[in-house]
Amino acid sequence: MRKKLVAILFLVFLIFPVGVVRAQDEEFDFARAYQDYVFTVDVYNSAHSEYLLAKAQYAQAGTLVSQTQAREATVKMLSSRDDVVTTYLTAVRMKMVEAEGVSSLTKNGLFTRLDAEIAWFRDHKDRLDSAGTLADLEADSKEASDRFVTSERIAYETLATIPFGKLSLMRTQANSILSRINDKVFQIRSNGDKDTAIVERWALEIEQKITRSLDKEIEAQALIPIFVPSRQNRSLDVRKNYTDIIFKLDESRQFLRDATEYMDEILREITTA
Amino acid sequence: MDTNIDQPVTPPTTPAPEIPTAPVVVTPTSPKKFDPRELFSKIKIPKKILISVAIALILLVVLVIVSSMLGQKRGGVAPQITETPAPTEEPISEIPSQYADDPDVAEIKKQMDELDQDLDEASFRDDTLRSPTLDWKVEFDD
After folding, report:
1. What number is the ipTM of this complex?
2. In angstroms, rounded to a whole number, what is the distance separating the alpha carbons of residues A134 and A72?
3. Alpha carbons A144 and A121: distance in angstroms, whole number
4. How far is A26 from chain B (nearest CA, A)?
5. What average pLDDT does range B51-72 have in this prediction?
6. Mean pLDDT across chain A, nearest whole number?
7. pTM value?
8. Which residues of A57-91 are buried (b: 16+ CB within 10 A; e: fewer)?
9. Half-sphere exposure (Cβ direction) of A54: Cα atoms closer than 13 Å
10. Cα–Cα nearest to A224, from A205, A210, A238
11. Other CB atoms within 10 Å distance of the CB of residue A148
12. CB contact under 8 A, B122 and A170
């Protein structure tokens, strides 16, 4: 009897932690990642204020005590700054995890690059304590600053890629509706119930609208490689490039809106005598 | 025969008729002249009514002056814009075709409504994940 109880308890303990870990994994979504990011930004702001104060005191006093305090405050600030970057990149990653319509290939490519950046900043944070002097910390900060240029580009590339999935799904839907409309029009023409010449011409115009929507998407797609660091685009304004992509995608969406309006007219034509 | 040539020709004289002169009638007395003051003096208006009318007139004048001044301050009276009546459109009566209640058409309509909703609700720009503003310039003047 005892042996059985022990065996049952052993099994329960064996299964229970696995269940807890699985539940934690399931709960970690974009909303949670974003909360973490906001929290670390608050911690960083506080640490940055302390750093500025310690720096000013050291500049004024120049004593060894103030130097030590400045070092500690700087380590704390740099550490929290690394945390901000890692939680930010994690939030971006989670956003991509939840994105619809983006191919697995594209997603995995971006995940690999984002994970490399996250790993770099975690490692950088661990190395901060080993910095002995303020000059070492200056060098550490410079190193992170240089690295963040790449990280920011990958983050914006990810953010710019997400809406492509949404748009792709909507265009697929529009094509599907147009296909069904064409089938219906064909049926009406076969039955000889109505003259469908005008409606068929309108369907062609809808097709053109959908094609123009695709063209705009391709134009936006052409701006994505600009995010990848190269000799030509060292001083790239990532936010501007992101805005340009979103603008083109909005234009693409407008063509789809026009297409649906035309489809609505076709349906009205079909349903009235 | 020669005697007729030397004599001047004179018109035949006829006696002028006598015009009878009208007898002058002399009136004994002239008529009395019309005097309005005399008329007003006859009408008796109560003093109270006169005062109240005078006050009302003064008030009216003051009111006119004040309103004109206010009108000038406000830049005059703004013209009232009245909407021009739009021609009412006759409702077009659409006669439903045999495909009005078609299940395929209803399904297409449903799909289109879903797509419209997606197009309206989809937000491409993500402002919540703008890159954080961080202090990258850590320098100590030794």
Report:
1. 0.78
2. 10
3. 8
4. 22
5. 87
6. 90
7. 0.70
8. bbeeeeeeebbebbbebbbbbbbbbbbbbbbbbbb
9. 23
10. A238
11. 22
12. yes
